[in-house]
Specification:
The protein contains seven helices and three strands. The protein is mainly alpha-helical and 151 residues long. The chain has one domain (33-146): Winged helix-like DNA-binding domain superfamily/Winged helix DNA-binding domain (Arc Repressor Mutant, subunit A), CATH 1.10.10.
Length: 151
């Protein structure tokens, strides 16, 4: 559904594109995350487990920055993961002010099981686009994400 905004053409075009981008992202995410929700995890919780799995222990501030979330929101996510025994907080040995979030054994097992299913689900969603189209979309999304103008 296009925008009903009655403004300049460049703004209407931008709003239409934005609406399509957001709807497509939400639609793909909803379908690709079915298995995550079935495992009792939120998208944010899955993202934290995935980051810790691939990057190792991280500070809360690093996790918040990586997931574009406020530190308060990320604290809630980590608290819930900790309650479920999937992560734990550990103080840095050299600077006691710093706290790292680590996967527990249960957290590692959960993400090692879920991530391959997730990767396959994402690949299935993007099979509608050719390799070339995926590469083009990747470049366009990176430019949008960084706020860069076209060449």
């Amino acid at each position: 559904m296009p925008t009903h905004f009655e403004g300049p053409d460049d703004q209407k075009r931008a709003l239409d594109t934005y609406i399509k981008l957001m709807r497509a992202a939400e639609s793909v995410a909803r379908r690709a995350l079915v298995h995550v929700q079935a495992a009792g995890l939120t998208e944010g919780q899955f993202g934290v487990l995935e980051a810790l799995h691939h990057l190792g222990p991280l500070k809360l501030s690093e996790l918040a920055r990586k997931h574009l979330r406020s530190p308060n929101n990320l604290t809630v996510i980590v608290n819930n993961l900790e309650k479920n025994g999937l992560v734990e907080r550990r103080r840095c040995a050299t600077d006691r002010r710093i706290i790292f979030v680590h996967l527990t054994e249960a957290g590692a097992e959960a993400i090692e099981h879920l991530f391959p299913i997730h990767a396959a689900a994402v690949a299935q969603e993007l099979v509608l686009l050719t390799k070339e189209e995926q590469a083009t979309l990747d470049g366009l999304l990176r430019r949008l994400g960084k706020g860069q103008t076209g060449q």
